Amino acid sequence: MSTRTAALLGAALLLTACGGGGRIGDAGDAGDGKRMVLIPGVSAEPFYISMECAFREAAQARGYAVDVQAPAKFDSTLQTPIVSGVLANRPGAVLIAPTDDKAMAGPMRQLKDAGVKVVEVDTRLEDTSIAVSTVSSDNEQGGQLAARTMAKLVGDKPGSVLVLNTKAGTSTTDARAKGFEDEIGKYPNLRYVGQQYTDNEPDQAVSKLTATLAAHPDLVGVFATNLNTGEGASTGLRNTGRTGVVNLVGFDASPKQVEDLRAGAVQALIAQDPATIGRTGVEQAVAALEGGEVRREVETDLVALTRADMDANEEYFYKQGC
Amino acid sequence: MSPDGGRRTWAQRLLGANTLWIGLALLVIVAVFGALRPDAVLTVFTLQSLLVETSVLLVLSVGMTYVVVTSGIDLSVGSVLVFSSVTSATAMNALNAGDATRAGWGTVLVGLAVALAGGAAWGLLNGLLVARAGLPPLIVTLGSFGAALGAGQLISNGSNVSRVPDALTDGLGSGTWFDLPNMVILAGAVTALGALVLATTRFGRHTYAIGSDEEAARRAGIPVTRHLAGVYLLAGVLAGLAGFMSLAYFRVASITGHETDNLDAIAAVVLGGTSLFGGSGSVVGTVLGVFIPAVLQKGFVIVGVNVYWQPVAVGAVLVAAVWFDQSRRRARNRR
């Protein structure tokens, strides 16, 4: 990079960082109270699509017009302009999955200051004064459920268990890993060999899994805390002929994961309930708008799906479209 | 590229080779891990999994070597990989009414062609913008880095594409030939060919010449514009092939999770002794450069290094290795 390019880049960064006084959204007319907007964390992900389907249905049933605006990536720099755009139209309520627990506080406060009721779904801000309600699944509880499911799958056999995690500092997946770690200690036959971070890259998950297999040939279980780590784990097990020998417990239930569960590449999935999150989010928003009782914290349940009981729990499979 | 060709003895040539020391560094790393955990490190299992897991990055890095030798850079390889694997998987599914799992080799070949064509298209676009329009490669490929990923998301509607033919995943993805994984054979063949072309053919010599001094190369009658476009085209095609390989390996075309492939490939190339300023380097060096971080990561997990120390240690070794290599070369040039 030449010096000139560097200087230009620096200037551009400075410009974006400083900005002038005043606030976007200061001007603007009164909005439409009978409209509700959902801002998921990222577009086209089965988890958020399932949430969106339930959101649309529930909000329309209560007589609200609906709109869904999702960023292309799970990234606060892409979600912020969407929030500002939504603010310009002043809907009655916004359901949002903040993509960063600090960076999204500013834009979301603007919504609140403009009189829009904000409900957090799935993820949350560190600042609890902005949203009227937070609806999410308890990720730590999900991790505990994963540990119990793992113990059931393994039975009495002694052996090592591994956690494949995403990036250090991702609140949701860290909570899942923590819940797992706390709970797995209750089973004396299972030796927890710790967690490995994979940067959310499937190829790193493969490499760390096979390295762990080399170091601990008695590995009997792997808990993969999200889709990408699960994909890497099942690839690694398949290529080393350990599919089914090492029990793999994944998180979430997108169509590909459900397929893998049916095919035996994964032994169990811990599914969240995005539909209930969306539906409950609407209920809380309606209560805030129409003067009902609003609960600040709502936690939805998680379920463990195994090959044996998956067909009875089809409602928990995430959807690719409504 | 040795100025005094045949006069140096065999030993002098070996000692002067850019790749010797980095190769020794790799051996030392393996020896250290091997001494710590001989039962887990020095096994066929670890060797086999290491080779399979690096084969996709190796193919990307071979293409990157050519680009860096011309003093260019290609940030788009990871996104082109995603684009190719997504288009290939989508095409194979479309040929089989939405589910290609049971499809035959005909479908697989079409998938391969689509992946290579997808990679070639992005490579050619990069090449034309760099060579013909004269834009800086950093900016051009930063643009296609975003655009190729976006295009892949458009085609797959933002989600991963599965239902890849079993013939492909069992054949290439997890199949072996005399205990050698097919993925490794393919990557090895591509690497050998890449090394041979760069070191022994006119195409290779022109690549070095352009990297040393583009204007001089032009005056010497080398078709610089066409050649540069060709080099980016090659990098694109190899990224397409890498996309096809990763499709076979993971059985799914992932939209996420290739954001740092470009940096991994560039790091491997530079670690292997190829100068970012162009004009020198080799594919053999790149192979070593791919393996050093991979061996480190695997070794750290096996010997049980704290997870937060792992990236620190990998980063430190990378910088130290390049520092050592550079100062050795500077000393040699002064002589």
Record the SSE blueprint:
The complex is a heterodimer of chains A (322) and B (335).
Chain A: H1 3-18, E1 32-39, H2 46-61, E2 65-68, H3 76-89, E3 91-96, H4 105-113, E4 117-121, E5 133-137, H5 139-154, E6 159-165, H6 171-184, E7 190-197, H7 202-215, E8 219-224, H8 227-239, E9 247-251, H9 255-263, E10 268-271, H10 274-290, E11 297-300, E12 303-306
Helix pairs in contact in A: 2-10, 3-4, 5-6, 7-8
Chain B: H1 10-16, H2 18-36, H3 38-41, H4 44-69, H5 77-95, H6 105-132, H7 137-156, H8 166-173, E1 176-177, E2 180-181, H9 182-200, H10 202-212, H11 214-219, H12 224-250, H13 261-271, H14 283-303, H15 309-334
Antiparallel strand pairs in B: 1-2
Total DSSP helices of chain A:
10
Task: Give the termini distance of chain B in whole angstroms.
Answer: 18 Å
CATH class of chain B, named Mainly Alpha
What CATH calls the topology of the largest domain in chain A is Rossmann fold
The N- to C-terminal Cα distance of chain A equals 47 Å
Q: How much helicity do the residues of chain A have?
A: 40-55%
Order of H and E elements of chain B: HHHHHHHHEEHHHHHHH
Shape of chain B: globular
Q: Write down the CATH class of the largest domain in chain A.
A: Alpha Beta
Which residues of chain A form runs of ≥5 with pLDDT under 50?
13-22, 24-29
Give me the count of strands of chain B: 2
Keywords:
A: 322 residues; alpha/beta; Rossmann fold; 2 domains; 10 helices; elongated; B: 335 residues; mainly alpha; 15 helices; globular
